[in-house]
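Quick start: what a row looks like.
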Amino acid sequence: STAAASTSVIFANSPTPLEVINTNNEVVAAGTTGAQLILNDPVTTGDLAFMVGDDNVGIGEQFCVPLRASHFTNLIGHQLTLTWDPAALQYTGVQSLNLPNLTTSSFGTLAEAQTAGRLRMLWQNTGLTGVSLANGATLAEVCFTAIGPEGTYPIDFSTEVLPVEAVDANYQNPLLETVPGTITIGAGGQDGASLRIVSAGV
């Protein structure tokens, strides 16, 4: 198939349990971050792609993940909706906005994000002038507090409310792909050991 697809690669506790020992021969808490292996990676195929970053955090930790784009070429507007488990990730806001006329008003309400685990984003450039960004550019950072139990939680793109769409200066809708992010909540957080698998696309 030529369609983009992804599969998760994670650390498992079976058949060999995960254990990290320091120089004092003490077992220390360890957090892990899995990764997405992306087949027919849109970053390399040339399609417009929206991507959410991954992170490895401790319970109670505040953090932000980037919302990035590749092949963001001559666009005048786009819309999308991010979703997550609100029992594990508590939304706190957005920052580092990196598009002309993109403001906090371009995003959904705090109440909807915190109760429904859903964040809408609607952007349009004033004057309908096309905007192009470098591959991997950050559009915004989405911030959370990790409140849930240890585990792995996706931040994904929804096909409901505001499905992912874009329009360019020629009023065409480019082909696009989405790549979700993965947030791993562990007891270790920043104070323990951190093991990460690097995401890759092929």
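That is the whole record. Residues 144 and 177 are 24 Å apart (CA to CA). The chain has a mean pLDDT of 86.
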